[in-house]
Amino acid sequence: MALLQVEGLRKSFGARRVLRDVTFGVAEGEIVGLVGSNGAGKSTLGDIVAGITPADAGVMTLQGHPYAPLSAGDARHLGVGVVEQLVRIDPELTVAQAVLSGTPQAGRPQAELREPAQVLLAEVTLDVDPDTLVGELPHFVYGLVETARVLAEDTRLVVLDEVSAALLPVEVTRLHAVAGRLSRQGRGVLYISHRLPEMLELVDRVLVLRDGVIALDSPAAALDPVRLAAETVGEPSLPEPRVATAPVRSGRDAPPARASTWPVPAGEDVALRVRNLRVPGRVEGVDLLLRQGEVVGLTGHRSSGVQEIAGALTGELPALSDELVLHGEPRSLGTTADEAALRLPAYRPDDDAYGVDPGETIARTLTQEPWGALTDIRSEIASLRGVIKTVHRLDVQTLSIRTSFGALSGGDQHKLALARWMASAEDVVVLHEPTRGLDVRARRQVRQLLDEVTADGTAVVVVSVDPDELAECCDRVGIVAGGRVARWIDTRELSVDAVRDRIVEAATAA
Ligand SMILES: Nc1ncnc2c1ncn2[C@@H]1O[C@H](COP(=O)(O)OP(=O)(O)OP(=O)(O)O)[C@@H](O)[C@H]1O
After folding, report:
1. ipTM, interface predicted TM-score of the complex
2. Cβ(121)–Cβ(130) under 8 Å?
3. Mean pLDDT, rounded, for 391-417
4. Given pLDDT bands bounded at 50, 70 and 90, which one contains residue 357?
5. 2-233 with 271-509: one CATH topology?
6. pLDDT tens-place string over residues 261-319
7. Where is the ABC transporter domain (predicted)?
8. For position 246, what pLDDT does the model report?
């Protein structure tokens, strides 16, 4: 008997028909992957299963019994838990309170919660003090705190919506171990992700949601990442994004191949050169050289110093260097009010809903900064045309640019926020995880955006946990370990698969 059976599910938002006729089952102990392009309706489907959103039509059964939850609480009570994509946890709660919020222990004194919370945190291999306030945690661990919460509740089916999106490969492996344990306990898992190669290593079966129906229901063993990517976006085949010896980027001439020793001697086209970058106690002796039009990736474990290097470049952390030159001009590092201090602009996908008001329309989100009335009707028309063009170009799933930004799918919000941010990109910028949560086509669109800005000479530092993202976006990738760049990988002559393998291998060894 199926643990969960879903028949003929339908859901529309206004005129937008998201789920037209969705039928599938999840068996006990089965891990089922749910994939689809941005806006395909994956979160909507997960939310219906988890009682967060009501379906318009269709029938669900849980262990053979009719299942029609009226709320998330109702679903939890019936044994279905969800970790939502855009996790919001009350920042005033302690981690222990958050983890045990759905259990009979909720409301007990902190001293009584500490130990049971510790056990659950260990299960998701999250090394944080249960007394810490949630608001003090970095955003990427929210999904793991929520996963621990779901484990605390006696769930039979767990929906994990993009929990892996912000995790390092080693953390994804641990998350997969948690999913494996759930499966061995006979629980079912619905696993939503855009990180297809990693997902295929975990799941038993894959569902592709396309055009409002399950367009493919296949054992994972019968699929590979390339075929699955093509199925996801409904294209018969997708070209390899980067092939050996081919010029990597369109929109500009690829620089001549350089030896993989790094940094290379500085020349005319240097955008930024930093010698002996130090962040006291965290980073030591880092040399960076960015050429105009170059995309350089940085990755490493949480304690490697990679975030501190980025923080030094954006002026968020006090830092020192022996030499710092931006476009030929000497500059300094640090957080002082010093005019010459370097403060590279940075984009982060998890910055409080992208720094955008979710109630604003798409049109206003893209055209206005700061919010305020446009005075010139002609400029409004011109910019609205630009908005429509951007929305079409980025394949944003909406019927109108008057739709509120917050009603867009997570991936569509991210694409538009990034496009808006990149429109005012300066000489040298830092992008944190620019393709997080994006489908395979959207990842290419982001690469196109990168091609456009780099063609104009902008140099980009990409800070990421995702080896595929680094492989697809960057000309070279620095593996940071122990506060230093332990190794540079030149990506331009390699296939994405080869680059991913090297990054994972180097990051694991570091
Ligand atoms: N509350 C809402 N009001 C209006 N439209 C909505 C609402 N929730 C979702 N939608 C629309 O439903 C569609 C599906 O959204 P959903 O978040 O389920 O997509 P998704 O497949 O999870 O995408 P992603 O991969 O980007 O997270 C989107 O076009 C979105 O705009």
Report:
1. 0.98
2. yes
3. 85
4. confident
5. yes
6. 445 555 668 899 999 999 999 999 999 999 999 999 999 988 899 999 999 999 888 89
7. 4-236, 265-507
8. 34
Tell me if 349 CB under 6 Å of ligand 1.
no
Q: For ligand 1, say whether the CB of 40 is within 6 Å of any of its atoms.
A: yes
Could you tell me the sign of the dihedral formed by the alpha carbons of 442, 444, 447, 448, in that order? negative
* pLDDT on residue 85: 72
Rounded to two decimals, the pTM is 0.83
Domain-wise residue ranges, the chain: 2-233, 271-509
Q: What is the CATH number of domain 2-233?
A: 3.40.50.300
- Reported for 393-399, long-range contacts at CB under 8 A and 24+ positions apart, including other chains, are 393/445, 394/419, 394/442, 394/445, 395/37, 395/38, 395/441, 395/442, 395/445, 396/39, 396/362, 397/16, 397/38, 397/39, 397/40, 398/16, 398/39, 398/362, 399/14, 399/15, 399/16
So what's the architecture of 271-509 in CATH? 3-Layer(aba) Sandwich (3.40)
Pocket test for ligand 1, best of 9, 409, 418, 446 (most atoms within 8 A of CB): 409
Ligand 1: distance of its center to the CA of 331 in Å? 45
